Fold this sequence. Notes:
The chain is mainly alpha-helical. It has three helices and two strands. The chain has helices spanning about 10-15, 20-40, 45-75, and strands spanning about 15, 20.
Amino acid sequence: MKKYEPYKNIRKKAIIFGLPLPLFALMVICIIASLFVIIFSFSLAVIIGALLFNAILYILLNRINRLLELFQMLGIFPQMISNKRNSNIRYEKN
Length: 94
């Protein structure tokens, strides 16, 4: 029977609505702040402005996330690939 090791660092790669957790948390905080502004204002312009701000913020955060992914991909691949086994045994000449 196969044994599977649990992946404990799932929060590092978690994505909600296309955003990683920190950017999604920022988006939620901005939405809640916009809701407070909408509740305490009686102007149609403020309501439309808050909706536009949230839409623009979502698009901006998605683009920032894509740019960060491109920069992370640059350093993933090694300069040299080898089939040589790595071992801790060192042979020294006396």
